[in-house]
Design brief:
The protein is α+β, with helices and mostly antiparallel strands. The chain contains three helices and twelve strands. It has helices at residues 11-32, 52-56, 129-134; strands at residues 2-3, 6-7, 34-43, 46-50, 66-71, 76-85, 90-100, 103-115, 120-127, 140-148, 151-152, 157-162. The strands form three sheets. Strands 5, 7, 8, 10, 11 and 12 form a six-stranded mixed β-sheet that branches. It has a four-stranded antiparallel β-sheet with strand order 4-3-6-9. A two-stranded antiparallel sheet has the order 1-2. The termini are far apart.
Length: 179
């Protein structure tokens, strides 16, 4: 017996396949759609990438900051990439500031962004030795807080400045290549 041109004994097979494809589509779209933040921190010749999985992979009640270090007096460069993987447009205020023990020391970035659906933007700023001197920074640890639309990313980025060890430390021996 046929039902709407489909053999009746196969109708449950087709319904099961349709449900399975629907579940797969939900997982694909649910895992892909959304707003994704990536922060790049460059000190000296080294760049660290703080991907969206770091911010989203933490429990909401216990969030850990990201730790990075820089030599005192070096310029620290930041890039903040916002990827709008949604069908709708998105706009918000983005702010980045430097803190130490719940006291704001320096505003590094204040900018309004506007993204179309599936758009992407990158914001860049830096912390120069002159800004460090104006803010009376010293060797130690500071927190870089980045907020988008009034919501802070995780617990921030712990930026630790360390003192250069100076000429008293011997350099590493050169690496020999070949026989």
């Amino acid at each position: 017996m046929k039902y709407m041109g489909i053999n009746r004994k196969n109708i449950f097979l087709y319904a099961a396949i349709a449900c399975l494809l629907g579940i797969i589509a939900i997982f694909v779209f649910g895992g892909y759609l959304g707003l994704y933040d990536t922060v790049y921190v460059s000190t000296g010749e080294y760049e660290q990438v703080i991907g969206p999985d770091f911010w989203q992979g933490q429990r909401p009640d216990v969030r850990f900051p990201y730790n990075t270090g820089a030599r005192w007096g070096d310029t620290v460069r930041f890039r903040y990439e916002i990827n709008n993987r949604r069908f709708s447009d998105y706009s918000a205020d983005v702010e980045a500031s430097l803190w130490q023990r719940d006291q704001k020391l320096n505003d590094m970035l204040k900018q309004r962004i506007s993204l179309s659906g599936f758009g992407r933007t990158t914001l860049e700023w830096q912390l120069t030795p002159q800004e460090m001197e104006q803010a009376n920074l010293q060797v130690g640890q500071y927190t870089v807080r980045i907020s988008r639309g009034g919501v802070e990313l995780g617990r921030g980025i712990i930026l630790g400045f360390y003192q250069d060890l100076g000429p008293g430390i011997p350099p590493k021996p050169p690496v020999r290549v070949g026989p």
